[in-house]
Write a structure and sequence with these properties.
Number of helices: 4
Largest sheet: 4 strands, antiparallel
Radius of gyration: 14 Å
Strand order of the largest sheet: 2-3-1-4
Order of helices and strands: EHHEEHHE
Helix content: 25-40%
Structural class: alpha+beta
Shape: globular
Low-confidence stretches: none
Strand content: 25-35%
Number of strands: 4
C-alpha cells in the first residue's frame, strides 16, 4: 500500500462548487477508483490550500488506469479548473510508525 499526498490552490470563487462536486461524487466513479486500486482519498482545506491524501495499492498504475477512463476524464474536466495550479506532489520528510 502506498500513501501519496498532494497540494493545490483552490480558486476561492469555486470553493463551494468544489465541495459540492465532491459531495455528489458518483458511486460509479467511486467503483472505478476502487477497481483501479485506490483504497482511500481524503481532501483537506486550509484557506485556499487544498491537500489530497491517497492510499493506493500502486498509485502510478491506478493513475494510468484512470487516465484512460472516460468517466474520470469528465470528472477531471469538471473539477480541474477549480484549482490553480493543479495538484503537486508533496515529499514526505518524516513518519512515526
Amino acid at each position: 500500500m502506498e500513501t501519496k499526498v498532494f497540494v493545490a490552490r483552490l480558486r476561492p470563487e469555486r470553493k463551494e462548487d468544489y465541495i459540492e462536486a465532491h459531495n455528489r461524487f458518483s458511486p460509479e466513479l467511486r467503483a472505478r477508483y476502487r477497481a483501479a486500486g485506490i483504497h482511500q482519498i481524503r481532501l483537506f482545506l486550509l484557506g485556499e490550500q487544498l491537500f489530497m491524501l491517497i492510499e493506493a495499492e500502486n498509485y502510478e498504475l491506478a493513475r494510468a488506469a484512470l487516465d484512460e477512463d472516460p468517466l474520470d476524464r469528465i470528472w477531471q474536466e469538471r473539477v480541474g479548473p477549480m484549482k490553480s495550479p493543479d495538484f503537486q506532489p508533496l515529499t514526505e520528510i518524516f513518519r512515526l510508525d
